[in-house]
TrEMBL record:
Protein name in UniProt: Pyridoxamine 5'-phosphate oxidase family protein
Pyridoxamine 5'-phosphate oxidase N-terminal domain mapped to chain residues: 13-93
Lineage top rank: taxon: Bacteria
NCBIfam families: PPOX_MSMEG_5819 (TIGR04023)
Gene source species: Blastococcus xanthinilyticus
Length: 119
């Protein structure tokens, strides 16, 4: 991750869109909450009753995923970080109280619109 990408990810409340596919390759894209774990260099996606969601089941069946985190500044300045890589469905841990989550490890990161000029 570049300094500009990390700065963008730290810039505020940004919505992500997670793309997964089922075992047959049927795509599924949904808005998600996320967090970047700088220590591990991974993205964590979770939510309420997460292990019961289609996106979680898709990652169990097919661990390839992509995440888009973006926004648009006025008047029209789109900014985006696009992450592709292997995803892991991590079950809830009753002993620690940790929620189920998807952990996405970036294999390829592309971005645009993060420069100050907005090119």
């Amino acid at each position: 991750m570049s300094a500009a990408e990390l700065g963008f990810l730290r810039s505020g409340r940004l919505l992500g869109r997670l793309a997964t596919s089922d075992v047959h390759g049927q795509p599924h894209v949904v808005p998600v909450g996320w967090r970047y774990d700088e220590r591990l260099g991974t993205f964590e996606i979770s939510g309420r009753d997460f292990a019961a969601t289609r996106k979680y089941r898709n990652v169990v069946a097919n661990p390839r995923a992509a995440l888009v985190i973006d926004d648009v500044l006025p008047p029209w300045r789109p900014r985006c970080v696009h992450v592709q890589g292997p995803a892991q469905a991590v079950p809830a841990d009753l002993a620690t109280g940790a929620e189920a989550l998807i952990r996405l490890t970036p294999a390829k990161v592309t971005s645009w619109g993060l420069d100050e000029e907005g090119a």
